[in-house]
Amino acid sequence: VMAHAGTADLFIAVAAVADWGIANPSAIKLKKQPGGQPPQLDFVQNPDILAAVAALPGGPWCVGFAAETDHLAEHAQAKRARKGIPAIIGNLAQDAMDAEDTALVIFDDAGAHPLARQPKLHAARQLITWIAGRLPG
User: Fold this and answer.
1) 52-101, pLDDT tens digit by residue?
2) pLDDT class of 125 with cuts at 50, 70, 90
3) Environment class of residue 91 by beta-carbon count within 10 Å: exposed (0-12), middle (13-18) or buried (19+)?
4) Is residue 69 part of a domain?
5) DSSP letter for each residue of 36-86
6) How many domains does the chain have?
7) What is the pLDDT confidence band of residue 104, given thresholds at 50, 70 and 90?
8) In terms of DSSP bridges, do strands 43-45 and 101-102 run parallel, antiparallel, or are they unpaired?
């Protein structure tokens, strides 16, 4: 991503690849032992790709996503500020996973802009139209 982001006009980070990685990966398969305990896994934070792209001087206009389980507005706006991005699209994960439709909220400097619950394809088209209307230049 970083090799190409500097030449892009727009970066839409639709999902984190993984927020956490294994700190102590094994080079070999961890086999079960009779009466054994599960392996101890320690985690480290993975790099924040969206924040890194947003911090590029003259980089692309960035949009992120916030799938939350509670306090959507609070968590999404905090995430937007932390990453330094102009817009973030939020939803409640438990209402969207395995569903044919979704209810999204666009968060930007002007506040929260809820979209009506609608089929996911229609929501995607509405988001692209909204983003296109805000791109600089």
Assistant:
1) 999 999 999 999 999 888 998 999 999 999 999 999 999 988 887 888 99
2) very high
3) buried
4) yes
5) PPPPP--EEEPP-HHHHHHTSTT--EEEEEEEESS-HHHHHHHHHHHHT-S
6) 1
7) very high
8) unpaired
Say which DSSP state 39 is in.
P
Using DSSP, state whether 119 is helix, strand or coil. strand
Q: For residues 67 and 44, is the Cβ–Cβ distance under 8 A?
A: no
Instruction: Indicate the DSSP class of residue 56.
Output: S
Domain assignment of residue 120, given as a range: 2-19+47-132
- The rounded distance, in Å, linking the Cα atoms of 81 and 85 is 7
pTM, rounded to two decimals: 0.85
pLDDT 10s digits, 36-45: 888 888 999 9
User: What CATH number did the domain enclosing 128 receive?
Assistant: 3.40.50.10300
- The set of residues, in sequence order, having a beta carbon less than 8 Å from that of 3 and lying 6+ positions away, is none
Which helix (H) or strand (E) is 66 found in, with range? strand 61-68
